[in-house]
Amino acid sequence: MMHKGVEYMVAPTATPGIWKWQFRIGDQVKTGRTETKINLLAMRRVQLRIDRELKKAEAQPTPRRSGRESVATAG
């Protein structure tokens, strides 16, 4: 399944009402479990988790150049 460009999976476990989930954003793989009897609710919870992780990734500053790169001058 896909949500906002992130592929994820939700699958039932051997325990009724417990779902395992997994998704990857960049190099990070997130996994977990959620408890619900309704598979669509399990999917929605994973989508909300993806939204949080995407927002967190956006908020992290990207490395900036120092602006002190050496410049070769002719002369």
Structure characterization notes:
This protein is α+β, with helices and mostly antiparallel strands and 75 residues long. The protein has one helix at residues 39-59, and strands at 2-3, 6-12, 18-25, 28-35. Strands 1-2-3-4 form a 4-stranded antiparallel β-sheet, covered by helices on one side. A hairpin with a 2-residue loop joins strand 1 and strand 2. The chain is elongated and about 75 Å long. It starts with a strand and ends in a 16-residue tail after the last helix. The model has no long low-confidence stretch (mean pLDDT 88).
Biggest β-sheet description: 4 strands, antiparallel
Spatial arrangement of strands, main beta sheet = 1-2-3-4
Query: Which runs of at least 5 residues are low in confidence (pLDDT < 50)?
Result: none
- Head-to-tail CA distance between termini: 60 Å
Helical residues, percent? 25-40%
Which overall shape is indicated by the principal axes computed on the Cα atoms? elongated
Overall pLDDT level:
88
Structural class by helix and strand composition: alpha+beta
Order of SSEs = EEEEH
The value of Rg in angstroms is 20 Å
